[in-house]
Design a protein that fits this description.
The protein has about 160 residues and is α+β, with helices and mostly antiparallel strands. Helices cover about 35% and strands about 25% of the residues. The chain has one domain: Beta-Lactamase, CATH 3.30.450. It contains four helices and six strands.
C-alpha cells in the first residue's frame, strides 16, 4: 500500500470503518513493533486530527513513551498513576471527558482537555497502552471506545 490515507469525513463510526482496512494494509507483513506503532499513531492522528496519539510500552514495571504523534510527552508513567497508569493497573479502557476532573491526572500538556486510553493485552498481560488526547472537552465516547478496543485487539496479534 502507498503511505497515504484516503480520509473519510463524516461520522466517527464511518471514519473508523474506513481507516481500519487501511491501517491493516499499511502494517501488512511488517514485524517491527516500533514501525507498526508509529504508523498506527500517524494514521489515527491524520484521520481524526487528534491533539496527541501514541503508545506507552510496559518496560521494567513502568510505562515508557513509545511511538507517538504530537507535542513532546511524559517519558515514564508509574502503574496506577494518571489515566495511562490507571488503564494499565485496572486493565480497562478509560474515557475521560475532562482530564482536569480525573484524580491524579498527569498533565503532559495543559492543552489536553479529554483523553481515551486503551490497554493492549497479550497473554492476559498489559504490554502497552494506546493514549489519545484532544484539545476539546468530551471528544471521546462509546464509538471511539468500541473501535479503538477493536483496533488494539487486532494490533496485539501483529506486534
Amino acid at each position: 500500500m502507498s503511505e497515504e490515507l484516503a480520509i473519510i469525513r463524516g461520522g466517527k463510526a464511518e471514519q473508523y470503518k474506513s481507516l481500519f482496512p487501511q491501517i491493516k494494509a499499511l502494517v501488512g507483513d511488517e514485524k517491527d513493533v516500533i514501525a507498526n506503532l508509529a504508523n498506527v499513531s500517524a494514521a489515527l492522528k491524520e484521520a481524526f486530527n487528534f491533539f496527541w496519539v501514541g503508545f506507552y510500552l510496559v518496560k521494567d514495571d513502568e510505562l515508557v513513551l513509545g511511538p507517538f504523534q504530537g507535542p513532546i510527552a511524559c517519558t515514564r508513567i508509574q502503574k496506577g498513576k494518571g489515566v495511562c497508569g490507571s488503564a494499565w493497573e485496572d486493565t480497562k479502557t478509560f474515557v475521560v471527558t475532562d482530564v482536569d476532573a480525573f484524580p491524579g491526572h498527569i498533565s503532559c500538556s495543559p492543552l489536553s482537555k479529554s483523553e481515551i486510553v486503551v490497554p493492549l493485552l497479550k497473554n492476559n498481560q498489559v504490554i502497552a497502552v494506546l493514549d489519545i488526547d484532544s484539545k476539546e472537552l468530551a471528544t471521546f465516547d462509546e464509538v471511539d471506545k468500541q473501535y479503538l478496543i477493536e483496533l488494539c485487539e487486532w494490533l496485539v496479534t501483529v506486534i
